Amino acid sequence: MISHRFTTDRLLIRSVVEADTQELYEKILSDPEVMWYDGARVSADLEDARARVKRFMEWEQQFGMSFWTVTLKQTGEIISNCGLLPVEAKGPEVELGYDTAKQYWHQGYTSEAAEGCLRYGFETLKLDRIISITDEENTGSWKVMEKIGMRRMGFSDKYYDSTCLVYECTPSDIAKHPTNT
Ligand SMILES: CC(C)(COP(=O)(O)OP(=O)(O)OC[C@H]1O[C@@H](n2cnc3c(N)ncnc32)[C@H](O)[C@@H]1OP(=O)(O)O)[C@@H](O)C(=O)NCCC(=O)NCCS
After folding, report:
1. Band of the pLDDT at 180, cuts 50, 70, 90?
2. What pLDDT score was predicted for residue 74?
3. What is the pLDDT of residue 118?
4. Nearest CA to ligand 1 atom 19
5. Residues 110, 131: contact at Cβ < 8 Å?
6. Looking at residues 103-107, what average pLDDT do you find?
7. Can you list the positions of beta strands (E) in the chain?
8. For a pocket test of ligand 1, which of 102, 105, 148 has the largest count of ligand atoms closer than 8 A to its C-beta?
9. Which range among 15-19, 34-38, 95-99, 145-149 shows the weakest confidence by mean pLDDT?
10. pLDDT of 178 above 80
């Protein structure tokens, strides 16, 4: 059974478990503002959120990685859903993604979680390249990518049947990142 667990300064990032469903639903999966930016569908009810959580858990076993639960170390409360997954659950590229609950925006949490995921991806999962994909107008999302040392590759029509902005990162990009020098 594949399961992941790692920490950053303020956060504990771990595999999603069924018991997270209610909190993920209330704070993230049912919030149109969070899910609209993600391009994903809002979970209309707890049943739908349950199915989504089940899918996160299945991806973990299928791909050895998934979207994970991000909690505050101090209180244990869930603040974000962030992780690594073969793009469109197909790959071959591995994509970093994140959806953070609104009350925790603008406190550096997503950057901290996302950078933690990149490091974990390179150091523990031994990935050699991670991409991230967003819409140009989602400024907050690409700012996170730039803040954690990802490089803007430009626009691509290759993913999600739309024109998206693509960033990438390799282990040497992370090694050169200011937090490491
Ligand atoms: C985009 C999102 C992940 C940002 O999360 P966050 O926790 O607020 O990000 P951080 O606090 O780590 O901020 C990182 C940088 O982005 C900037 N930023 C964050 N949101 C911003 C926004 N809406 N507009 C402009 N800049 C923004 C911050 O100012 C910060 O830059 P700074 O350090 O130079 O000040 C969050 O708004 C979110 O979850 N949105 C909905 C889901 C989503 O869009 N997911 C990504 C799909 S591709």
Report:
1. low
2. 98
3. 98
4. 140
5. no
6. 98
7. 5-7, 11-15, 67-72, 78-86, 94-100, 130-134, 151-156, 164-169
8. 105
9. 34-38
10. no
Pairing of strands 130-134, 164-169: antiparallel
Pocket test for ligand 1, best of 79, 87, 141 (most atoms within 8 A of CB): 141
Q: Which long-range contacts (CB under 8 A, 24 or more apart) does 150-157 make?
A: 150/96, 150/118
CA-nearest of 92, 91, 90, 100 to 13 is 100
Residue 38: CB within 6 Å of ligand 1?
yes
Query: How far apart (Å, rounded) are the C-alpha atoms in residues 131 and 2?
Result: 23
Ligand 1 lined by 108 (C-beta under 6 Å): yes
Does the pLDDT at position 154 exceed 80?
yes
